Amino acid sequence: MLEFFLPVIQRALSSAGVTTEKPIRLEQPADKKFGDYSTNIALLAAKECKRNPRELAREIIPHLMFPPDTVEKIEVAGAGFINFYLTPLFIMRSVELVLQEGDNYGTGSIGKGQKAIVEYVSANPTGPLTIGRGRGGVLGDCIANLFETEGYEVTREYYFNDAGRQMQILGESVRLRYLECCGRETEFPDTHYQGEYIREIAEEMFREHGAALGESTEIQIFKKKAEEIIFKSIRTTLDRLSIRHDSFFNEHTLYTPDNEGIAANQRVIDELRKKEFITEYDGAFWFLTTKLGQEKDKVLIKSSGEPSYRLPDIAYHITKFERGYDIIVNVFGADHIDEYPDVIEALKILGYDTDRIKIAINQFVTTTVDGQTLKMSTRKGNADLLDDLIDDVGADATRLFFIMRGKDSHLNFDIELAKKQSKENPVFYLQYAHARICSLLRMAQQETGFNPSELAAEYQLLRLLRSPSEVQLGFALLDYPDMIKTSLRLLEPQKMVEYLHSLAELFHRFYQECPILKAEPDICKARLYLALATRQVLRNGFRILGVSALETM
RNA sequence: GCCCUUGUAGCUCAGUGGAUAGAGCAGUAGUUUCCGAAACUAAAGGCCGGCAGUUCAAGUCUGCCCAAGGGCACCA
User: Fold this and answer.
1) Taken in order A85, A89, A91, A97, is the CA torsion positive or negative?
2) CB of residue A104 closer than 7 A to nucleic acid strand B?
3) SS3 of A153, please?
4) Which residue has the least CA–C1' distance to nucleotide B72?
5) What ipTM is given for this predicted complex?
6) Binned average pLDDT, 10 residues per bin, chain A of 553 residues
Protein backbone atom coordinates (compact mmCIF):
# COMPACT_ATOMS: atom_id res chain seq x y z
CA MET A 1 0.00 0.00 0.00
CA LEU A 2 2.97 2.26 0.49
CA GLU A 3 3.51 2.26 -3.23
CA PHE A 4 -0.07 3.29 -3.72
CA PHE A 5 -0.24 6.07 -1.14
CA LEU A 6 3.20 7.61 -0.99
CA PRO A 7 3.30 9.14 -4.49
CA VAL A 8 -0.18 10.58 -4.05
CA ILE A 9 0.68 12.16 -0.72
CA GLN A 10 3.97 13.39 -2.08
CA ARG A 11 2.25 15.11 -4.99
CA ALA A 12 -0.40 16.59 -2.72
CA LEU A 13 2.25 18.11 -0.50
CA SER A 14 4.06 19.80 -3.34
CA SER A 15 0.87 20.95 -4.99
CA ALA A 16 -0.30 22.43 -1.67
CA GLY A 17 3.08 24.07 -1.30
CA VAL A 18 3.96 22.21 1.88
CA THR A 19 7.56 21.26 2.38
CA THR A 20 9.01 19.01 5.00
CA GLU A 21 12.25 17.21 5.63
CA LYS A 22 10.47 14.39 7.38
CA PRO A 23 9.74 11.16 5.53
CA ILE A 24 6.10 10.39 4.90
CA ARG A 25 4.93 7.54 7.03
CA LEU A 26 1.79 5.57 6.62
CA GLU A 27 0.45 3.66 9.54
CA GLN A 28 -2.48 1.45 10.26
CA PRO A 29 -4.36 2.85 13.22
CA ALA A 30 -5.06 0.30 15.89
CA ASP A 31 -8.68 1.37 15.81
CA LYS A 32 -10.49 1.10 12.48
CA LYS A 33 -12.53 4.17 13.28
CA PHE A 34 -9.38 6.15 12.54
CA GLY A 35 -9.34 4.75 9.05
CA ASP A 36 -7.58 1.96 7.23
CA TYR A 37 -4.44 4.01 6.90
CA SER A 38 -3.28 7.20 8.48
CA THR A 39 -0.43 9.65 8.17
CA ASN A 40 0.92 12.18 10.61
CA ILE A 41 2.69 14.18 7.94
CA ALA A 42 0.66 17.32 8.65
CA LEU A 43 1.76 17.19 12.28
CA LEU A 44 5.37 16.90 11.30
CA ALA A 45 5.20 19.53 8.58
CA ALA A 46 3.27 21.94 10.80
CA LYS A 47 6.21 22.19 13.10
CA GLU A 48 8.53 23.16 10.26
CA CYS A 49 6.13 25.72 8.74
CA LYS A 50 4.99 26.91 12.16
CA ARG A 51 1.38 26.27 11.28
CA ASN A 52 -1.60 24.75 12.98
CA PRO A 53 -1.51 21.03 12.15
CA ARG A 54 -5.24 20.58 11.69
CA GLU A 55 -5.50 23.58 9.40
CA LEU A 56 -2.57 22.35 7.39
CA ALA A 57 -4.12 18.89 7.11
CA ARG A 58 -7.35 20.44 5.82
CA GLU A 59 -5.38 22.31 3.18
CA ILE A 60 -3.56 19.20 2.02
CA ILE A 61 -6.66 17.05 1.61
CA PRO A 62 -8.09 18.67 -1.54
CA HIS A 63 -4.77 18.04 -3.24
CA LEU A 64 -4.87 14.31 -2.61
CA MET A 65 -5.79 12.81 -5.98
CA PHE A 66 -6.63 9.13 -5.74
CA PRO A 67 -7.90 7.01 -8.63
CA PRO A 68 -11.69 6.62 -8.62
CA ASP A 69 -13.25 3.88 -6.51
CA THR A 70 -10.25 3.45 -4.27
CA VAL A 71 -10.41 5.82 -1.33
CA GLU A 72 -13.86 6.29 0.10
CA LYS A 73 -13.21 9.03 2.60
CA ILE A 74 -10.38 11.21 3.86
CA GLU A 75 -10.65 12.88 7.24
CA VAL A 76 -8.68 15.10 9.55
CA ALA A 77 -8.75 13.78 13.08
CA GLY A 78 -7.13 14.21 16.43
CA ALA A 79 -4.22 16.59 16.55
CA GLY A 80 -3.93 16.66 12.76
CA PHE A 81 -3.83 13.14 11.45
CA ILE A 82 -5.05 12.51 7.95
CA ASN A 83 -7.04 9.29 7.92
CA PHE A 84 -7.86 7.30 4.79
CA TYR A 85 -10.78 4.93 4.38
CA LEU A 86 -10.59 2.49 1.48
CA THR A 87 -13.62 1.30 -0.46
CA PRO A 88 -14.54 -2.36 0.10
CA LEU A 89 -14.26 -2.91 -3.63
CA PHE A 90 -10.70 -1.66 -3.71
CA ILE A 91 -9.83 -3.86 -0.77
CA MET A 92 -11.35 -6.92 -2.37
CA ARG A 93 -9.46 -6.27 -5.55
CA SER A 94 -6.41 -7.39 -3.54
CA VAL A 95 -7.73 -10.88 -4.17
CA GLU A 96 -7.49 -10.35 -7.90
CA LEU A 97 -3.99 -8.96 -7.54
CA VAL A 98 -2.82 -11.87 -5.43
CA LEU A 99 -4.23 -14.44 -7.81
CA GLN A 100 -2.77 -12.77 -10.87
CA GLU A 101 0.69 -12.45 -9.40
CA GLY A 102 0.68 -15.84 -7.69
CA ASP A 103 4.05 -16.86 -6.35
CA ASN A 104 5.38 -13.43 -7.25
CA TYR A 105 2.87 -11.57 -5.13
CA GLY A 106 4.80 -9.50 -2.63
CA THR A 107 8.07 -9.42 -4.53
CA GLY A 108 9.53 -5.98 -4.94
CA SER A 109 12.28 -4.16 -6.72
CA ILE A 110 14.04 -2.20 -3.98
CA GLY A 111 17.18 -4.21 -4.58
CA LYS A 112 17.06 -4.41 -8.33
CA GLY A 113 20.56 -4.35 -9.76
CA GLN A 114 22.13 -4.53 -6.31
CA LYS A 115 24.22 -7.27 -4.80
CA ALA A 116 23.85 -8.30 -1.18
CA ILE A 117 25.92 -10.72 0.84
CA VAL A 118 24.46 -12.31 3.93
CA GLU A 119 26.85 -14.12 6.22
CA TYR A 120 25.45 -16.57 8.74
CA VAL A 121 26.24 -19.66 10.78
CA SER A 122 30.00 -19.37 10.15
CA ALA A 123 30.75 -21.94 12.83
CA ASN A 124 34.24 -23.38 12.78
CA PRO A 125 34.24 -27.14 12.31
CA THR A 126 35.12 -27.99 15.90
CA GLY A 127 31.86 -29.68 16.82
CA PRO A 128 28.23 -30.27 15.95
CA LEU A 129 25.95 -27.25 15.65
CA THR A 130 24.40 -25.98 18.82
CA ILE A 131 20.88 -24.67 19.24
CA GLY A 132 22.20 -21.13 19.54
CA ARG A 133 23.85 -21.35 16.14
CA GLY A 134 20.62 -22.71 14.79
CA ARG A 135 18.77 -19.54 15.65
CA GLY A 136 21.35 -17.46 13.82
CA GLY A 137 21.24 -19.85 10.90
CA VAL A 138 17.50 -19.63 10.48
CA LEU A 139 17.53 -15.90 11.00
CA GLY A 140 20.22 -15.49 8.36
CA ASP A 141 18.44 -17.74 5.92
CA CYS A 142 15.18 -15.83 6.31
CA ILE A 143 16.94 -12.50 5.94
CA ALA A 144 18.61 -13.73 2.77
CA ASN A 145 15.18 -14.81 1.51
CA LEU A 146 13.80 -11.35 2.23
CA PHE A 147 16.58 -9.70 0.26
CA GLU A 148 15.93 -12.02 -2.66
CA THR A 149 12.24 -11.23 -2.53
CA GLU A 150 13.06 -7.56 -2.94
CA GLY A 151 15.14 -8.24 -6.02
CA TYR A 152 18.65 -8.28 -4.62
CA GLU A 153 21.18 -10.67 -6.05
CA VAL A 154 22.07 -12.49 -2.85
CA THR A 155 25.14 -14.45 -1.87
CA ARG A 156 24.75 -16.62 1.22
CA GLU A 157 28.13 -17.01 2.78
CA TYR A 158 29.67 -19.19 5.46
CA TYR A 159 32.97 -17.96 6.87
CA PHE A 160 35.12 -20.50 8.62
CA ASN A 161 38.59 -21.17 9.84
CA ASP A 162 40.17 -24.59 9.72
CA ALA A 163 43.64 -23.41 10.57
CA GLY A 164 43.54 -21.81 14.00
CA ARG A 165 44.50 -22.93 17.43
CA GLN A 166 41.09 -24.38 18.20
CA MET A 167 41.48 -26.71 15.26
CA GLN A 168 44.86 -27.84 16.58
CA ILE A 169 43.22 -28.67 19.87
CA LEU A 170 40.49 -30.50 18.01
CA GLY A 171 43.09 -32.64 16.23
CA GLU A 172 44.87 -33.29 19.48
CA SER A 173 41.59 -34.27 21.16
CA VAL A 174 40.88 -36.82 18.47
CA ARG A 175 44.42 -38.16 18.67
CA LEU A 176 44.11 -38.75 22.40
CA ARG A 177 40.80 -40.54 22.02
CA TYR A 178 42.33 -42.57 19.23
CA LEU A 179 45.16 -43.64 21.52
CA GLU A 180 42.52 -44.75 24.01
CA CYS A 181 41.00 -46.89 21.27
CA CYS A 182 44.45 -48.44 20.84
CA GLY A 183 44.29 -49.35 24.50
CA ARG A 184 46.80 -46.76 25.68
CA GLU A 185 46.54 -44.80 28.87
CA THR A 186 46.17 -41.09 28.20
CA GLU A 187 45.48 -37.98 30.16
CA PHE A 188 42.68 -36.00 28.56
CA PRO A 189 43.04 -32.31 29.48
CA ASP A 190 40.06 -30.14 30.44
CA THR A 191 41.00 -27.68 27.73
CA HIS A 192 40.27 -30.27 25.04
CA TYR A 193 36.97 -31.08 23.38
CA GLN A 194 34.98 -33.33 25.68
CA GLY A 195 32.08 -34.25 23.42
CA GLU A 196 31.13 -37.78 22.58
CA TYR A 197 31.54 -36.98 18.88
CA ILE A 198 35.32 -36.82 19.37
CA ARG A 199 35.30 -40.39 20.52
CA GLU A 200 33.18 -41.40 17.55
CA ILE A 201 35.62 -39.83 15.12
CA ALA A 202 38.50 -41.57 16.88
CA GLU A 203 36.67 -44.89 16.70
CA GLU A 204 36.07 -44.47 13.01
CA MET A 205 39.77 -43.80 12.48
CA PHE A 206 40.62 -46.82 14.53
CA ARG A 207 38.35 -48.96 12.36
CA GLU A 208 40.02 -47.62 9.23
CA HIS A 209 43.64 -47.68 10.30
CA GLY A 210 43.84 -50.01 13.25
CA ALA A 211 46.62 -48.97 15.60
CA ALA A 212 48.86 -47.84 12.73
CA LEU A 213 48.59 -44.12 13.55
CA GLY A 214 49.48 -44.66 17.16
CA GLU A 215 53.21 -43.99 16.79
CA SER A 216 52.83 -40.67 15.02
CA THR A 217 52.67 -37.48 17.03
CA GLU A 218 51.64 -35.66 13.88
CA ILE A 219 48.09 -34.46 14.51
CA GLN A 220 47.41 -33.25 10.98
CA ILE A 221 45.76 -36.48 9.92
CA PHE A 222 43.49 -36.39 12.97
CA LYS A 223 42.60 -32.80 12.43
CA LYS A 224 41.87 -33.37 8.76
CA LYS A 225 39.60 -36.30 9.46
CA ALA A 226 37.81 -34.49 12.27
CA GLU A 227 37.24 -31.45 10.10
CA GLU A 228 35.87 -33.55 7.30
CA ILE A 229 33.46 -35.46 9.49
CA ILE A 230 32.32 -32.46 11.50
CA PHE A 231 31.80 -30.26 8.48
CA LYS A 232 29.74 -32.97 6.92
CA SER A 233 27.62 -33.23 10.03
CA ILE A 234 27.16 -29.45 10.18
CA ARG A 235 26.04 -29.37 6.59
CA THR A 236 23.69 -32.27 7.14
CA THR A 237 22.11 -30.48 10.08
CA LEU A 238 21.78 -27.24 8.13
CA ASP A 239 20.28 -29.17 5.28
CA ARG A 240 17.61 -30.59 7.55
CA LEU A 241 16.53 -27.01 8.24
CA SER A 242 16.84 -26.05 4.57
CA ILE A 243 19.57 -23.59 5.45
CA ARG A 244 21.70 -23.17 2.37
CA HIS A 245 24.93 -21.41 1.58
CA ASP A 246 26.34 -20.81 -1.84
CA SER A 247 29.76 -19.66 -0.75
CA PHE A 248 32.15 -21.02 1.84
CA PHE A 249 34.91 -18.57 2.61
CA ASN A 250 37.98 -20.05 4.22
CA GLU A 251 39.73 -17.61 6.50
CA HIS A 252 42.98 -19.20 5.50
CA THR A 253 42.92 -17.50 2.10
CA LEU A 254 43.51 -14.21 3.91
CA TYR A 255 46.89 -15.47 5.05
CA THR A 256 47.94 -16.54 1.57
CA PRO A 257 49.94 -14.07 -0.53
CA ASP A 258 48.15 -12.77 -3.62
CA ASN A 259 49.62 -12.15 -7.10
CA GLU A 260 51.76 -9.39 -5.73
CA GLY A 261 53.02 -11.59 -2.95
CA ILE A 262 51.16 -9.82 -0.18
CA ALA A 263 48.54 -11.47 2.02
CA ALA A 264 45.24 -9.70 2.67
CA ASN A 265 46.06 -9.58 6.37
CA GLN A 266 49.34 -7.86 5.66
CA ARG A 267 47.62 -5.28 3.49
CA VAL A 268 45.37 -4.33 6.37
CA ILE A 269 48.40 -3.81 8.59
CA ASP A 270 50.16 -1.77 5.92
CA GLU A 271 47.17 0.43 5.23
CA LEU A 272 46.34 1.01 8.88
CA ARG A 273 49.97 1.85 9.53
CA LYS A 274 49.83 4.50 6.79
CA LYS A 275 46.89 6.02 8.64
CA GLU A 276 48.95 5.87 11.84
CA PHE A 277 46.67 3.46 13.60
CA ILE A 278 49.26 0.73 14.16
CA THR A 279 52.00 0.56 16.74
CA GLU A 280 54.29 -2.19 17.86
CA TYR A 281 54.89 -2.80 21.52
CA ASP A 282 55.26 -5.76 23.88
CA GLY A 283 56.29 -7.68 20.80
CA ALA A 284 52.82 -7.37 19.23
CA PHE A 285 51.15 -5.14 16.65
CA TRP A 286 48.32 -3.09 18.06
CA PHE A 287 45.34 -1.37 16.52
CA LEU A 288 45.27 2.00 18.28
CA THR A 289 41.62 2.01 19.27
CA THR A 290 42.53 4.26 22.20
CA LYS A 291 42.82 7.01 19.58
CA LEU A 292 39.11 6.43 18.97
CA GLY A 293 38.24 6.79 22.61
CA GLN A 294 38.30 3.14 23.64
CA GLU A 295 39.89 1.98 26.84
CA LYS A 296 42.42 -0.39 25.40
CA ASP A 297 44.25 -0.94 22.15
CA LYS A 298 43.50 -4.19 20.38
CA VAL A 299 46.03 -6.75 19.29
CA LEU A 300 46.13 -7.45 15.57
CA ILE A 301 49.29 -9.55 15.46
CA LYS A 302 50.28 -11.44 18.54
CA SER A 303 53.87 -11.55 19.77
CA SER A 304 53.99 -15.08 18.43
CA GLY A 305 53.63 -13.57 14.97
CA GLU A 306 50.14 -15.00 14.42
CA PRO A 307 47.26 -12.65 13.67
CA SER A 308 44.52 -12.42 16.29
CA TYR A 309 40.98 -13.04 15.02
CA ARG A 310 40.43 -9.30 14.48
CA LEU A 311 42.91 -8.93 11.68
CA PRO A 312 41.44 -11.55 9.34
CA ASP A 313 37.97 -10.29 10.27
CA ILE A 314 38.87 -6.87 8.95
CA ALA A 315 40.55 -8.32 5.87
CA TYR A 316 37.52 -10.52 5.29
CA HIS A 317 35.16 -7.58 5.33
CA ILE A 318 37.35 -5.75 2.88
CA THR A 319 36.90 -8.65 0.50
CA LYS A 320 33.16 -8.15 0.77
CA PHE A 321 33.57 -4.57 -0.42
CA GLU A 322 36.05 -5.62 -3.10
CA ARG A 323 33.72 -8.32 -4.34
CA GLY A 324 31.29 -5.52 -5.12
CA TYR A 325 28.50 -6.00 -2.62
CA ASP A 326 26.19 -3.05 -2.12
CA ILE A 327 24.77 -4.42 1.10
CA ILE A 328 26.74 -6.46 3.58
CA VAL A 329 24.75 -8.26 6.25
CA ASN A 330 26.30 -10.12 9.15
CA VAL A 331 24.19 -12.35 11.32
CA PHE A 332 25.67 -13.54 14.55
CA GLY A 333 24.96 -14.41 18.14
CA ALA A 334 25.15 -12.15 21.15
CA ASP A 335 28.42 -13.75 22.20
CA HIS A 336 30.11 -12.08 19.25
CA ILE A 337 28.68 -8.70 19.99
CA ASP A 338 31.98 -7.05 20.79
CA GLU A 339 33.57 -8.17 17.56
CA TYR A 340 32.16 -5.81 15.08
CA PRO A 341 32.80 -2.30 16.45
CA ASP A 342 36.55 -2.71 15.94
CA VAL A 343 36.04 -4.08 12.47
CA ILE A 344 33.76 -1.19 11.60
CA GLU A 345 36.23 1.37 12.97
CA ALA A 346 39.07 -0.14 10.98
CA LEU A 347 37.00 -0.14 7.80
CA LYS A 348 36.03 3.48 8.35
CA ILE A 349 39.67 4.47 8.79
CA LEU A 350 40.48 2.67 5.56
CA GLY A 351 37.81 4.68 3.76
CA TYR A 352 35.06 2.11 3.27
CA ASP A 353 31.42 3.08 3.42
CA THR A 354 30.42 1.24 6.57
CA ASP A 355 26.79 2.33 6.25
CA ARG A 356 26.48 -0.53 3.81
CA ILE A 357 27.15 -3.00 6.60
CA LYS A 358 24.17 -4.18 8.56
CA ILE A 359 24.44 -6.28 11.66
CA ALA A 360 21.75 -8.62 12.91
CA ILE A 361 22.50 -9.94 16.36
CA ASN A 362 20.37 -12.66 17.84
CA GLN A 363 20.09 -13.23 21.55
CA PHE A 364 20.42 -16.59 23.18
CA VAL A 365 18.07 -19.53 23.29
CA THR A 366 17.02 -21.44 26.32
CA THR A 367 14.90 -24.53 26.04
CA THR A 368 12.17 -25.34 28.49
CA VAL A 369 10.43 -28.65 29.07
CA ASP A 370 7.41 -28.69 31.40
CA GLY A 371 8.22 -25.15 32.41
CA GLN A 372 11.70 -26.21 33.50
CA THR A 373 14.59 -24.38 31.90
CA LEU A 374 17.29 -26.70 30.74
CA LYS A 375 20.72 -25.38 31.46
CA MET A 376 22.80 -25.98 28.43
CA SER A 377 26.40 -26.91 28.46
CA THR A 378 28.61 -27.50 25.45
CA ARG A 379 30.97 -29.30 27.72
CA LYS A 380 28.43 -31.95 28.64
CA GLY A 381 27.16 -31.98 25.10
CA ASN A 382 23.61 -32.91 26.09
CA ALA A 383 20.48 -30.88 25.41
CA ASP A 384 22.46 -28.36 23.44
CA LEU A 385 22.56 -29.97 20.03
CA LEU A 386 20.53 -28.60 17.19
CA ASP A 387 20.13 -32.06 15.69
CA ASP A 388 18.47 -33.34 18.85
CA LEU A 389 16.05 -30.44 18.80
CA ILE A 390 15.12 -31.13 15.18
CA ASP A 391 14.64 -34.82 16.02
CA ASP A 392 12.36 -33.80 18.82
CA VAL A 393 10.08 -31.15 17.31
CA GLY A 394 10.73 -31.30 13.55
CA ALA A 395 12.25 -28.84 11.12
CA ASP A 396 9.21 -26.59 10.68
CA ALA A 397 8.74 -25.98 14.39
CA THR A 398 12.46 -25.48 14.89
CA ARG A 399 12.59 -22.83 12.19
CA LEU A 400 9.46 -21.00 13.17
CA PHE A 401 10.19 -20.97 16.89
CA PHE A 402 13.62 -19.50 16.25
CA ILE A 403 12.16 -16.50 14.48
CA MET A 404 8.80 -16.02 16.12
CA ARG A 405 10.31 -13.68 18.70
CA GLY A 406 12.24 -10.52 17.98
CA LYS A 407 15.89 -11.34 17.47
CA ASP A 408 16.84 -9.06 20.36
CA SER A 409 14.68 -11.02 22.77
CA HIS A 410 16.05 -13.92 24.67
CA LEU A 411 14.23 -16.86 23.21
CA ASN A 412 12.36 -19.27 25.35
CA PHE A 413 11.99 -22.45 23.32
CA ASP A 414 9.13 -24.44 24.81
CA ILE A 415 9.66 -27.97 23.54
CA GLU A 416 6.25 -29.21 24.66
CA LEU A 417 4.48 -26.35 22.95
CA ALA A 418 6.36 -26.96 19.72
CA LYS A 419 4.96 -30.48 19.61
CA LYS A 420 1.32 -29.63 20.37
CA GLN A 421 -1.32 -30.16 17.74
CA SER A 422 -3.51 -27.21 18.59
CA LYS A 423 -3.79 -23.47 18.12
CA GLU A 424 -1.55 -22.77 21.08
CA ASN A 425 1.29 -23.90 18.87
CA PRO A 426 1.84 -21.18 16.25
CA VAL A 427 3.42 -23.59 13.79
CA PHE A 428 0.40 -25.76 13.92
CA TYR A 429 -1.99 -22.86 13.72
CA LEU A 430 -0.38 -21.51 10.57
CA GLN A 431 -0.13 -24.86 8.85
CA TYR A 432 -3.65 -25.74 9.85
CA ALA A 433 -5.01 -22.67 8.11
CA HIS A 434 -3.24 -23.69 4.94
CA ALA A 435 -4.35 -27.30 5.14
CA ARG A 436 -7.89 -26.20 5.84
CA ILE A 437 -7.97 -24.12 2.69
CA CYS A 438 -6.52 -26.99 0.68
CA SER A 439 -9.22 -29.25 2.02
CA LEU A 440 -11.89 -26.70 1.20
CA LEU A 441 -10.65 -26.34 -2.36
CA ARG A 442 -10.49 -30.09 -2.84
CA MET A 443 -14.07 -30.33 -1.74
CA ALA A 444 -15.12 -27.44 -3.91
CA GLN A 445 -13.58 -29.15 -6.88
CA GLN A 446 -15.46 -32.36 -6.15
CA GLU A 447 -18.81 -30.87 -5.35
CA THR A 448 -19.08 -27.85 -7.59
CA GLY A 449 -16.41 -28.54 -10.17
CA PHE A 450 -14.65 -25.37 -9.07
CA ASN A 451 -11.58 -24.81 -11.17
CA PRO A 452 -9.41 -21.91 -10.03
CA SER A 453 -7.71 -21.45 -13.38
CA GLU A 454 -10.98 -20.89 -15.23
CA LEU A 455 -12.24 -18.04 -13.15
CA ALA A 456 -10.11 -15.27 -14.56
CA ALA A 457 -13.09 -13.54 -16.13
CA GLU A 458 -15.14 -13.44 -12.98
CA TYR A 459 -13.29 -11.02 -10.77
CA GLN A 460 -16.27 -8.70 -10.64
CA LEU A 461 -17.88 -11.26 -8.33
CA LEU A 462 -15.57 -9.97 -5.65
CA ARG A 463 -17.82 -6.99 -5.15
CA LEU A 464 -20.28 -9.36 -3.50
CA LEU A 465 -17.93 -9.69 -0.55
CA ARG A 466 -18.75 -6.94 1.90
CA SER A 467 -19.05 -8.48 5.34
CA PRO A 468 -16.50 -7.41 7.95
CA SER A 469 -14.68 -10.72 8.15
CA GLU A 470 -14.35 -10.83 4.35
CA VAL A 471 -13.18 -7.27 4.00
CA GLN A 472 -10.71 -7.61 6.86
CA LEU A 473 -9.21 -10.70 5.33
CA GLY A 474 -8.92 -8.97 1.97
CA PHE A 475 -7.33 -5.99 3.63
CA ALA A 476 -4.73 -8.24 5.24
CA LEU A 477 -3.81 -9.64 1.84
CA LEU A 478 -3.19 -6.12 0.66
CA ASP A 479 -0.73 -5.67 3.45
CA TYR A 480 1.64 -8.47 2.60
CA PRO A 481 4.08 -6.56 0.35
CA ASP A 482 4.52 -3.84 2.99
CA MET A 483 5.17 -6.53 5.54
CA ILE A 484 8.07 -7.86 3.49
CA LYS A 485 9.55 -4.40 3.27
CA THR A 486 9.20 -3.84 6.99
CA SER A 487 10.76 -7.20 7.82
CA LEU A 488 13.63 -6.45 5.49
CA ARG A 489 14.23 -2.93 6.76
CA LEU A 490 14.37 -4.17 10.34
CA LEU A 491 16.13 -7.44 9.42
CA GLU A 492 13.38 -9.01 11.42
CA PRO A 493 11.52 -12.05 10.01
CA GLN A 494 9.50 -12.08 13.21
CA LYS A 495 7.29 -9.38 11.65
CA MET A 496 6.39 -11.84 8.95
CA VAL A 497 5.54 -14.55 11.47
CA GLU A 498 3.27 -12.19 13.29
CA TYR A 499 1.60 -11.11 10.08
CA LEU A 500 0.98 -14.66 8.91
CA HIS A 501 -0.46 -15.54 12.29
CA SER A 502 -2.97 -12.74 12.06
CA LEU A 503 -3.75 -13.70 8.48
CA ALA A 504 -4.46 -17.26 9.56
CA GLU A 505 -6.64 -15.92 12.33
CA LEU A 506 -8.63 -13.74 9.95
CA PHE A 507 -9.11 -16.68 7.67
CA HIS A 508 -10.41 -18.92 10.46
CA ARG A 509 -12.88 -16.23 11.44
CA PHE A 510 -14.03 -15.77 7.85
CA TYR A 511 -14.39 -19.51 7.49
CA GLN A 512 -16.42 -19.70 10.64
CA GLU A 513 -18.73 -16.82 9.80
CA CYS A 514 -19.21 -17.19 6.07
CA PRO A 515 -20.55 -20.39 4.56
CA ILE A 516 -18.70 -21.04 1.35
CA LEU A 517 -19.81 -24.18 -0.45
CA LYS A 518 -23.34 -23.72 0.82
CA ALA A 519 -23.62 -20.13 -0.31
CA GLU A 520 -25.34 -19.28 -3.55
CA PRO A 521 -23.11 -19.95 -6.56
CA ASP A 522 -21.76 -16.45 -7.23
CA ILE A 523 -20.96 -15.78 -3.60
CA CYS A 524 -19.51 -19.24 -3.29
CA LYS A 525 -17.13 -18.50 -6.14
CA ALA A 526 -16.14 -15.15 -4.75
CA ARG A 527 -15.42 -16.69 -1.37
CA LEU A 528 -13.42 -19.48 -2.92
CA TYR A 529 -11.40 -16.77 -4.60
CA LEU A 530 -10.73 -15.17 -1.28
CA ALA A 531 -9.69 -18.50 0.20
CA LEU A 532 -7.45 -19.18 -2.76
CA ALA A 533 -5.75 -15.82 -2.44
CA THR A 534 -5.25 -16.37 1.28
CA ARG A 535 -3.60 -19.68 0.57
CA GLN A 536 -1.33 -18.02 -1.93
CA VAL A 537 -0.15 -15.40 0.54
CA LEU A 538 0.34 -18.02 3.25
CA ARG A 539 2.47 -19.99 0.83
CA ASN A 540 4.52 -17.01 -0.21
CA GLY A 541 5.13 -16.14 3.42
CA PHE A 542 5.97 -19.72 4.33
CA ARG A 543 8.52 -19.77 1.54
CA ILE A 544 10.33 -16.79 3.04
CA LEU A 545 10.27 -18.37 6.48
CA GLY A 546 11.18 -21.81 5.18
CA VAL A 547 8.15 -23.48 6.68
CA SER A 548 6.40 -26.15 4.66
CA ALA A 549 2.90 -25.60 3.34
CA LEU A 550 1.12 -28.82 4.23
CA GLU A 551 -1.90 -29.86 2.17
CA THR A 552 -3.28 -32.13 4.87
CA MET A 553 -2.41 -32.66 8.49
C1' G B 1 34.09 -2.12 37.33
C1' C B 2 33.03 -1.32 31.90
C1' C B 3 30.10 -2.63 27.32
C1' C B 4 25.70 -4.90 24.71
C1' U B 5 20.56 -6.80 24.97
C1' U B 6 16.13 -7.22 27.68
C1' G B 7 12.24 -5.53 31.49
C1' U B 8 4.75 -4.04 28.74
C1' A B 9 -1.75 -8.38 31.29
C1' G B 10 -1.09 -14.70 35.26
C1' C B 11 2.38 -16.82 30.92
C1' U B 12 4.87 -15.95 25.95
C1' C B 13 5.38 -11.58 23.36
C1' A B 14 3.95 -7.08 19.56
C1' G B 15 4.16 -1.82 19.74
C1' U B 16 7.90 2.85 13.46
C1' G B 17 7.66 10.13 18.96
C1' G B 18 1.26 10.33 17.93
C1' A B 19 -5.26 9.12 18.98
C1' U B 20 -8.60 5.19 24.66
C1' A B 21 -1.21 0.80 25.19
C1' G B 22 -2.28 -4.34 21.61
C1' A B 23 -2.04 -9.86 20.25
C1' G B 24 -1.80 -15.00 21.39
C1' C B 25 -2.07 -18.57 25.27
C1' A B 26 -4.00 -19.90 30.11
C1' G B 27 -8.46 -18.74 33.10
C1' U B 28 -14.12 -17.25 32.64
C1' A B 29 -18.86 -17.44 29.70
C1' G B 30 -20.74 -19.08 25.14
C1' U B 31 -20.81 -21.44 19.82
C1' U B 32 -21.29 -28.11 16.22
C1' U B 33 -28.40 -31.08 12.52
C1' C B 34 -23.99 -27.25 8.42
C1' C B 35 -17.42 -26.72 3.94
C1' G B 36 -11.71 -29.67 8.91
C1' A B 37 -14.54 -27.38 16.56
C1' A B 38 -7.19 -29.25 15.07
C1' A B 39 -11.77 -23.86 14.96
C1' C B 40 -14.69 -19.39 16.34
C1' U B 41 -17.20 -15.43 19.54
C1' A B 42 -17.58 -12.39 23.99
C1' A B 43 -16.39 -10.16 28.46
C1' A B 44 -12.44 -9.81 31.88
C1' G B 45 -7.44 -8.95 32.67
C1' G B 46 -2.25 -2.85 32.79
C1' C B 47 1.30 2.26 37.92
C1' C B 48 4.45 -0.10 30.12
C1' G B 49 10.82 -2.14 36.24
C1' G B 50 11.62 2.86 39.24
C1' C B 51 12.85 8.22 39.48
C1' A B 52 13.84 12.68 36.92
C1' G B 53 14.09 15.31 32.18
C1' U B 54 13.28 16.72 26.57
C1' U B 55 8.52 17.47 23.56
C1' C B 56 2.30 20.25 21.52
C1' A B 57 2.68 14.73 22.29
C1' A B 58 6.94 9.53 25.69
C1' G B 59 5.90 2.37 26.41
C1' U B 60 9.02 4.73 22.48
C1' C B 61 14.12 9.82 23.06
C1' U B 62 18.01 11.47 27.30
C1' G B 63 20.20 10.78 32.25
C1' C B 64 20.44 8.09 36.84
C1' C B 65 18.87 3.73 39.66
C1' C B 66 17.00 -1.55 40.10
C1' A B 67 16.62 -6.60 38.01
C1' A B 68 17.71 -10.73 34.29
C1' G B 69 20.87 -12.66 30.26
C1' G B 70 25.38 -12.15 27.51
C1' G B 71 30.28 -10.14 26.66
C1' C B 72 34.79 -7.83 28.57
C1' A B 73 42.36 -12.55 26.43
C1' C B 74 48.48 -11.65 22.76
C1' C B 75 40.81 -17.55 22.39
C1' A B 76 37.58 -17.44 17.90
Assistant:
1) negative
2) no
3) strand
4) A338
5) 0.91
6) 86 85 78 83 80 85 90 86 89 89 93 95 89 90 95 95 84 92 87 87 93 83 92 94 94 90 92 92 90 85 89 94 95 82 90 90 80 53 74 92 88 85 85 93 86 70 88 90 90 91 92 90 90 94 93 87
